[in-house]
Fold each of these.
Amino acid sequence: MDIRAGVIVVALFAVAGAFVLIRAAVKNMQTARRLSFYSLRRRHNANAWRLFFIALFLVGFAFWLPSRGEQAIYRYFPPTPTPSLTPTITLTPTITLTPTITEMPTLTLTPAVSDTPSPTTTPFLPIAIEALFAGPVTPNPDAIFTAIQFSTEFDGTNPINPRTVFELPIGTMYGGFDYNNTLPGVQWTALWYRGRQLVCYETEPWRDAWGTGGIGGYTECANPIGGWLPGQYEVQIFMGYEWKVVGRFVVQENLTTPTATGTPTP
């Protein structure tokens, strides 16, 4: 059982305990009405009020625990992203010879990188990231983001020379986008994955200075877990629990250009 499930269970037990105490308080009051001795009646009424106040405390505790108590627990037991296995990308070049009836050699281009997209699942927020939320999670359903453009340089408004394939070494990677119909205060999140491993993230309430629409929005990653390594990367952007846009790019050891090989055909 994780911390979030434990908090919910404790809150439910607190509500159940408050219900039992309120019933006991009502029974004490009813018993006190039937007593003819003042001291006994007063004792039963005092006990009933005591049970009632304890029940109110438990109700308040049950509401406080999921909203504020869970965040207090995470201050002492901070969540950490769970590492996962990174799939290995295998490139299989295929060389095809096309015979002709002329003396001209046949050229076949063999690309160094295949653009065939790998199957992905619907983006979702890890529980460890949800635990860090500090703002509302209900976004404007009409909020939109443009496609993410990637670059290692950013001029404050747009990525410089955006592309989808990069060569090591890399310092900071930027993902730029424009946006519209956003609500200030709503939690927004950007998740950076290498394969299936979460290597970088940022999450915070949408700032008032950013407004409800504009250009020059961006997310950045400077120190991914394990450093920048060759592989396929994916960036997912969420408003609240709702994902808005996904962008992908590739990092290689070095950028190679396709080479032509010729074989004379008799």
Amino acid sequence: MPQRKPASPGLLAAQAARRVAVAALYWGPVIFLLATAVLVVGLWKGANLGGLMYLAVVLLAVFGVASGWTLQRRLGEISGALDRAQRTSTVGLLTAGFAHEMKNALTVILGFAELARTSGEKARTDAKVMRHLREVENETRRTVAQLQSFMSYSSGERGARIPRDVNELVRDALSMVRPMARMKELQLQEVSGEPPRVVCDPFAVRQLLLNLLLNALDFARTRIQVTTRAVDGQAEVLVADDGPGVPPKDRDRIFQRFVTTRPGGNGLGLSTSREIAQAHGGQLSLVETDSGATFAVRLPAAR
């Protein structure tokens, strides 16, 4: 049974504001009608119910002030969430434009790399030089393909889903972060099991894994371990680091949009990753551990 998509802080604030407005809409008239009924009964019976009327007026005033204050606070939260969403949208557009320009430039570089390789083959250039030229050509071609996938994904196009080896997807993601891990003197440990193949959008799942690895790079002290295995007929990937871990108060919030525990973070990595996992019929969760942080991705096996 698919899990419900976590609500964003902006949506939660909107729902809270709606509840307050509905309460004010219904309970305000109810208190007013009760006070009126008490007044009519008092006049009819000749009783002095001024104290009760005063209490009703006080209750209405307190309820109105509390409702107004709560609505103002919730509307402020909604405004902040919309502002962050607007900034994120702008950054997304700029990133997509930058990716387009990079793709064009790399396509030109790829053309010259292919030309250099073919010219080197005709001239029987040194084998070592030819190996380097082939590496430049292959890496450039791979980067161009990834940029194309990114532009398709950012435009909302659903990528083709094909059967893929989970270990291969993990190795692709690890290859992207190895240079950063070396700069931070972190060990990247890969424990490859035998997970089943999965039907997925390779770019999206690679992005999911990359988000988890980049998150681990920010918090790990000495090492990051990525484990793949089969669990209950599904493919599971564990990304663990030996950092400080996730504080208990944040464990239920970290998958919400714009919620981050990292200085300078935008709070989109984990929420986007969970959405990708759920779009593939899987799930992303934080595993309870004694130390560090461990995230588990589960994806259904290909049929």
